[in-house]
Specification:
The chain is of the alpha/beta class. Helices cover 37% and strands 19% of the residues. The protein has helices at 20-26, 44-50, 63-73, 93-98, 120-135, 151-157, 166-176, 202-216, and strands at residues 7-13, 31-37, 54-57, 78-81, 105-112, 147-150, 181-188. The chain has a seven-stranded mixed sheet, with helices on both faces. Strand 2 (31-37), helix 2 (44-50) and strand 3 (54-57) form a beta-alpha-beta unit. The longest helix has 16 residues, at 120-135.
C-alpha cells in the first residue's frame, strides 16, 4: 500500500471507557479510529467522541456485528481491526499495514508478555482452533485478533457470523478464496481495564468456542 494512504481502524467496543483513551493516543499518525459502540453502559461512546474518534453505534450485541458495522461505516481503502482493551499496542498497525503490499491479509499472532496476559484456557482453545485451520490449508497459528486488509475485499468475503465466530469464519473464507495471508508476531499484554469478555473467564472462553464450533460445522 502507499505509505501516505490513510488507514481506518475499527475498534469494536463494549464497555471499554477505561482502556480507550490509551488506545486512541497510541494510534500511529494517519490511522483514523472508528469506535463501534456495541451497547456500552460505561460512557464508551462519550469518551471516544470527546477524544475525536468517529463513533458508530451498533446496538446488536456481538463481536462480529460490531466489526461488520465498522466495515460498512469505513471509507478508506485499507482497514485495520483492533481490540480496544489495550492488550495489543496500536503501534503494530503501522508495520502490519506496510506488509499489505503483496498480500491480502496481515494477521497478528499473539505472543503473551507474561502469564497474566493470556489465561491457559484461552490459549488452549485458540491453539486447537488454529490447528484445525492449518489442516484446512490456512497458514495461521492464531485467529487474528488484530488484522489489516482492504475494506472491499473483506466485505466481498461475505462473512455472516455476528458473534465470536467472526474471525474464524473470515480466515476460513479467506483461505477458500486463495488469499495470501501473512502472519506477524504481536506482543500480547494484560488488558488495560476490566476483564476480557472471552479470555477473562472459562465461561467466556466456552461461549466463544461454541460460536466457533458453529462456524466449523
Amino acid at each position: 500500500m502507499d505509505p501516505f494512504d490513510p488507514v481506518e481502524v475499527v475498534l469494536p467496543c463494549l464497555d471499554e471507557a477505561a482502556a480507550l483513551p490509551g488506545v486512541l493516543a497510541a494510534l500511529p499518525p494517519g490511522f483514523r479510529p472508528l469506535v463501534v459502540d456495541n451497547g456500552s453502559t460505561d460512557g464508551t461512546a462519550e469518551v471516544a467522541a470527546a477524544l475525536g474518534a468517529t463513533v458508530v453505534p451498533e446496538p446488536r450485541r456481538g463481536y462480529g456485528a460490531a466489526v461488520h458495522a465498522g466495515l460498512l461505516a469505513a471509507t478508506a481503502d485499507v482497514v485495520a481491526v483492533l481490540d480496544a482493551d489495550g492488550s495489543v499496542d496500536p503501534a503494530v498497525l503501522e508495520p502490519m499495514a506496510a506488509r499489505l503490499c503483496g498480500t491480502d491479509l496481515v494477521a497478528g499472532r499473539r505472543i503473551p508478555t507474561g502469564r497474566r496476559a493470556w489465561p491457559w484456557h484461552a490459549q488452549a482453545g485458540n491453539a486447537a482452533v488454529a490447528a484445525l485451520l492449518r489442516r484446512r490449508g490456512v497458514p495461521v497459528h492464531d485467529i487474528a485478533p488484530v488484522r489489516v486488509a482492504r475494506r472491499t475485499d473483506l466485505l466481498e468475503l461475505g462473512v455472516t457470523d455476528r458473534a465470536f465466530g467472526y474471525p474464524l469464519e473470515l480466515l476460513l473464507r479467506a483461505g477458500a478464496a486463495g488469499w495470501r495471508i501473512a502472519e506477524v508476531d504481536v506482543a500480547y499484554r494484560p488488558r488495560a481495564g476490566g476483564r476480557s469478555k472471552v479470555s477473562g473467564s472459562v465461561r467466556g472462553t466456552l461461549r466463544a468456542a461454541r460460536d466457533m464450533a458453529a462456524v466449523l460445522t
